[in-house]
Amino acid sequence: MSGSVRDDIVRVAHSIHDRGLxxxxxxxxxxxxxxRILVTxxxxxxxxxxxxxxxxxxxDGTHVSGPRPTKEAxxxxxxxxxxxxxxxxxxxxxxxxxxLSVLEEIDPDDPLPPLTAYYGMRVGRLQLLPxxxxxxxVATAAVERAARAGHALLLRNHGPVVAGPDLDTALDALEExxxxxxxxxxxxxxxTAPLTPDQLAALRSRTDPRESTPR
Length: 215
Ligand SMILES: [Zn+2]
Prior knowledge:
By secondary structure, the protein is α+β, with helices and mostly antiparallel strands. It is built from 7 helices and 8 strands, in the order αββββαβααβαββαα. It is 36% helix and 16% strand.
């Protein structure tokens, strides 16, 4: 089991890097492994992550074995603690989502209009969290609070943190967020027609409740 979890993390980490969804040595992933959590290590590009070089944590974030975990492991630990149905968390510095996170005039409870059906189904509700320095665990309480309300968070001046029932579903949602943020900037200043509440409600019946949190 652990072997396939490790292989999954490596496959998705390399995919995120190869497709330019995060840059440099930014971005990190976590997946439950039994009662523990496997997370990508600190100081390593997602393009170079190896199956035998992942950090193993207790569910409370205590380091068990492997290299030192990413400084942002507490984000993953908090998300997984507050969302028992989630098994994986993906965090990147994807450029359009990060651009959205720096806008001054933005509603923290509704930072991005639902421009597409897939955004409605895979992301649903997005919450913008207040700024905290990278790796500063003071953000833990805010992440916990937001995680109880939804699986898709956007860290102010930073990037998205998205949980899912598995790694591929979490990545799908993060990519949908990134794609919709790109659409938002492409159409900025134009009149757009986001999905209506009725249209979003109709999508809800098609959505796996584990995957999304209704707006
Ligand atoms: Zn980060």
